[in-house]
Amino acid sequence: MLGFWGLTVLPNKTYSQIVENSFKLSMAALDEEVKEGRSSVRVTVDKKTFVLCSLTPGKIEQQSLDLVFTEGESITFSVSGNNSIHLSGNYLPEDDYDSEEDPFREMSDEDMYEDEDGEDEGEDADEDEDMGEDEEDNEDDNVIVTKGAKRVAKQLAPEKKQKISENQAKPVKVAKETAKAIKEEPVKKEPSKKDVAVKKEAPVKKEEIKKEIKKEEPKKDIKKEAPKKENKQVLANGLIIEDVKVGTGPAAKSGKKIGMRYIGRLTTGKVFDKNTSGKPFDFNLGRGEVIKGWDLGIQGMQVGGERRLTIPSELAYGSRGAPPDIPRNATLVFEVKLVSMK
């Protein structure tokens, strides 16, 4: 179960804290006792202040939000105006990730690599075990595989060490027998070519095994994935822009005619409109042909890119809504993809 989080922000006061447990802010509402005039709730993160929403008695008295504050962040809440504002949400578990599927994306290369890595690790473990039986001189060597915060050290079993010591003892025996042969036959002072070959044979194998280990082990570290960067912007007007996938084509700007695929949802998850097949939805960017949240949120997208736009009602359909599908003062969530631009 998720724990409840709440805070009452009074006018002309600030509430600062360093987040100890990550939480999600989902609602802002006026107090039961209200005064005239508009009141705005603000948050300061990394010395930058943003307005989360503005509430007016008798018109807009509560507003849905979708903001996550993570452990270690330094944040400050404050209110401008004459009214107290109640903030509420819930604490997040440590492994709370966004599992919502993207309808435009196929399995990415990273996903495929993750599956292959799982299989490769099993095969690598078998290969390492086989290699350990053929090694002749690695009593002091440990093979350390690092993955995340865990380290696993594989050491040679005592039985394998015994095999190695037996193999190392063979050249000594041959050398002793050769010495006896030299004493019995004083005429032959020089050692035979066979004896020399036997003495040199073992060290060559050791060097080759060490080279193979050095070449193969670093490959495991190459597969480490770089940490993913969070591409999320929260604008002062409440618009939230998240880059799900950065495109490779030219960037969209005002005056350009663009073609879009999209899915529009309410904060409840209900789909009220979509364009995922057939002819893309075309319009001129920045000309007021669509809601303001689109004109602002699509600026700078590159062709082939995908974004998630969380648009407050002031930048969508406001207090009128768009009956019957979109109620009054509704926050809208759009998943958009830029497919063409002229």
Q: What is the gist of this entry?
A:
Helix content is 25%, strand content 32%. It is of the alpha+beta class.
Provide the helix percentage.
25-40%
Count the strands? 17
Q: Structural class from helices and strands? A: alpha+beta
Inertia-based shape: globular
Strand share of the residues?
Answer: 25-35%
Number of helices: 5
User: Which runs of at least 5 residues are low in confidence (pLDDT < 50)?
Assistant: 96-102, 112-116, 132-166, 168-176
Cα(first) to Cα(last) distance is 50 Å
Radius of gyration: 34 Å
Mean pLDDT: 75
Listing every helix as H and every strand as E from the N terminus to the C terminus, the arrangement reads EEEEEEEEHEEHHHEEEEEHEE
Mind describing the biggest β-sheet? 7 strands, antiparallel
Task: Write the SSE topology.
Blueprint: E1 4-9, E2 14-18, E3 23-30, E4 39-45, E5 48-55, E6 62-69, E7 74-80, E8 85-91, H1 109-134, E9 143-147, E10 150-154, H2 158-184, H3 193-216, H4 219-222, E11 232-234, E12 240-245, E13 257-266, E14 271-275, E15 281-284, H5 292-297, E16 306-311, E17 332-341
Antiparallel strand pairs: 1-8, 2-7, 3-6, 3-8, 4-5, 4-7, 9-10, 11-12, 12-16, 13-14, 13-15, 13-17, 16-17
Helix pairs in contact: 2-3
